[in-house]
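hey so i finally got around to running both of the ones u sent me last week. sorry it took forever, my laptop kept dying halfway thru and i had to restart like 3 times lol. anyway pasting them below in the order u listed, first the sequence line then the C-alpha cell line for each. didnt double check formatting much so if smth looks off just lmk and ill redo it

first one:
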Amino acid sequence: MLRVALIGFGAIGTSVRELLEGDTTLAVTAIVVPAEGVAAVQALAPGVQVASNVPTSGIDLVVETAGHAAIEEHVLPALARGTPCIVASVGALSATGLAEKLEAAAIAGRTQVQLIAGAIGAIDALAAARIGGLDSVRYTGRKPPQAWKGTPAEQGRDLDALTQETVIFEGSAREAALLYPKNANVAATVSLAGLGLDRTLVRLIADPATTENVHTVEAEGAFGSFALTMRNKPLAANPKTSALTVYSAVRALRNRAAALSI
C-alpha cells in the first residue's frame, strides 16, 4: 500500500480523500495544512496525521492540491529528499523559474514530479504532437459568470448583469495563469504540454448561457490537426474548479499503485 501525504484540504483535497476511502492500494496517511488549520482538519480526518509540514518518513508519495505557496514550501523539499510528487496546481508553474526549480529538485532527489492533466483531455496527444513539431495551439475557456468572481474579470463589469457571452481575457497562457490563477490551470497545462506559456494563445469567456466549464483546445502541426471540446461539470464545493480535476488526481494516484496503468 502506498502511503500518501495530501497537501491541502480544501475542495479538491477533501474530494480526493473521499474517493480514496476503501482503496486497498493507497491510503492518505498524512494531511498538510497551515499551522492555524491543523486542529480543524484533525476533527474532520480522525486517524490521519495532520501537520503543517510533510513528514520526513513514512510517506511514499506527495500530492499537492493547495497552490503556488505549497509547491515552494512543501513540494520542493519533498522532491529533494527523494519523495515523488504529484502537482495539481499546474497554473502555478507560470511563475518565472518555478518549473525549473521543480525539475532541479526532482533531479537532486533522484525522483519525479508529475503534473496532472486536470480538467482537460488530449494532453497525451498534444505532448506527442510536440515531438513532430507544433505550429499553433489555442485554448478557449468558457465558464458561467459566477466562476469568474474574485478575478480581474470583475473590473469594469458586473458579472451578475451579463446577458450574453463576454470575452474577459485574450493573450498568452503565461498572462492568463498569472491573472486567473484559480481558473487557468488548464491553460498552463496545455501550454506546458505544447508550445510553452508564451506561445500558447488563450481566450477566456464569461457566458451566462452555460452552467458548465467548457474547455476547447485546437492544435496544428506536422501531425495534422485536432480540436477538442470538453464540457465539465464544476466541482460542487468550488465552481472555479472542474470535477474532472479531482478525478484526474485520483487517476494519477491509482496509476502509481496499479500493476497495469493507462
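and the second one:
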Amino acid sequence: MKPLNGIALKLVAVTLFIVMSALIKAASDTVPPGQAVFFRSFFAIPVILGWLVMRGEMSTGLKVASRMGHFWRGFVGTTAMGLMFAGLGLLPLPEVTALSYAAPLLVVVFAAMFLDEKVGVFRLGAVALGLVGVLVVLTPRLTTLGGPTVETAQAVGAVLVLLGAVCAALAQIYIRKLVQTEQTSAIVFYFSLTSTLLSLLTLPFGWVVPGGTETVYLVLAGLFGGLAQIFLTSAYRFADASVIAPFDYASMLFAIAIGYVIFDEVPTAQMLIGAALIVLAGIIIILRERQLGLQRGRAKAAKTPQG
C-alpha cells in the first residue's frame, strides 16, 4: 500500500469530476440533460478501452457474470446522471455538489434495507445529522416554489439533484452486489456503454445541434469523466477506501472556486452551513466504517488457527 499515491490519485479524480460538472453546466443553456449524458458516456468509452489495453485486460476485463446486474446498475446510474445534469443547469455548482453528498448517507440506509447490513445507532445518528444538513441547504429553495419563475426553477433543480442523489445511492448498492462477481473494469465499461445507449432514448425530446464551443465542452466532459473514473479506480489500488474516501469532500472547495471564478456564483452562509453538516456526517460514517473494519479484522485474526 502507498497511501500518499492513493490520496493524490483520488484528488486528481475529484478535480476532474468537478471540472466535468462545470463543463456540463457551461453547455446546459443550450444542450438538454439527456444529450449531455450521451456525450459524457460515449466519449468516456475510448478512454476506458485505452486503459484496459494498457493494462492488458481486454481479454478478461470485459467478461460478465450478471448481465442484468450491469443493466440495472446502468439504469439507475444513468438516471442519477441525468437528474444531476438537469440540476446543474438550474442551480449553482457548489449547491449541486453539496446536495450530491446526500448519496453516501443514503447508501447506509439502503444497505440496511436491501443488503441486510447491520447499521448501528452511531451511523444512523450520523445519517440523521447529514439529512439535517440537506434540509438546511434545501429550505431556501423549497420555500420559493410559489415565487418568481427563476426561483421556482431553482427549487425544481434542488429536487432534481436530491432525486439524483437517491438514484446514485441505489447505484452504489448495485455496485456492492456486482463487485462480488464482476471485475471493476467491467463495471466501469458497461456502465458507460449502458448509459450511452439509454441516453439515446431521449433523442426525440429536444436534442439540438450544439455549437462549436458547446461541442468542445461536451466532448471534454466525456474524456475527463472517463479519466476521472480511471484515477478513482486506481486510487483504491494504493490505499484503503477509509483512507481516501474523506478526500471526496475536497470537491466542495473546487466547486466553490470554479463557481465563483467561472459562473460568478457566491455560496450563501446557509448553504455552507448545510454543506458542513453533510460533510461532517459523511466523515463520521467513514471513520466508523474504518473502526468496524478494524474490529472485524482483529476478530478474524483471533479466530485464525496459528501455525
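quick thing i noticed on the 2nd:
The mean pLDDT is 88.
anyway thats it, ttyl
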